Amino acid sequence: MSRKGKEACNTSLEPKSRADDAWWDMPQVSLLIELMYEHYKKGHLLSSTFSEQIRREIGIELSQRNKTQYTVAQLKGKANRLRMLWRKFYDLVYKWTGFGWDPTTCTVTASEDRWAEWIAVNPRESGLKKKGLPHFDLYTEMFSSSMASGSNARSSAMPPVSNNDNDEVDVSYPAMDTGNPLSSGPEKIQTATRGMR
């Protein structure tokens, strides 16, 4: 059975049944993100994660300010779940047309028609319409630089890339002058192709 605390944002962050999970209400989640952000600004975030020592420090700071004790495993688990949720929201807001972010409710915004279209393609993620995440902007600053970007970046919600092996690949090289005065001129290297001929 789950407990629900007062929520500053419209969120559904209920604890799991595993022993390493703990109850997190919105003030605790918000404080955890703020503490993570403070350590990020100090340069403690390495390869999109914090060391165990930094997690211990965050745990001590959290318990001093919130009077709640969490283990390093609980902090790591919560931070990972929050980052996965943030990634889903980030993909919606920045990679799909028609979605935005409401900092007051801490939720993704879109028209009902747009949500219906997206949910039809992503039925497993329909709960994102009602979930929220405090400090989305801080998470974006902390973790967006460690994400792939550009034309080859792929969201988990995007369909797989088509691999058409019949495409020709141009692998021509510039002709080289061998420096031999007896040679008849620069030699041409044949262009390679990939796929069926």
Automatic annotation (TrEMBL):
- Its name, as the record gives it, is L10-interacting MYB domain-containing protein-like
Q: Where is the Myb/SANT-like domain?
A: 24-117
**InterPro entries given for it?**
LIMYB (IPR045026), Myb/SANT-like_dom (IPR024752)
Q: Which organism is it from?
A: Sesamum indicum (Oriental sesame)
Gene transcribed to yield this protein: LOC105156501
Q: Superkingdom, according to UniProt?
A: Eukaryota
What Pfam families does the database record attribute to this sequence?
Myb_DNA-bind_3 (PF12776)
The lineage, from the top, is:
Eukaryota, Viridiplantae, Streptophyta, Embryophyta, Tracheophyta
Q: Where is the composition biased (Low complexity)?
A: 149-158
Q: Where are the membrane-spanning stretches?
A: none
The segments labelled Disordered in the record are 149-197
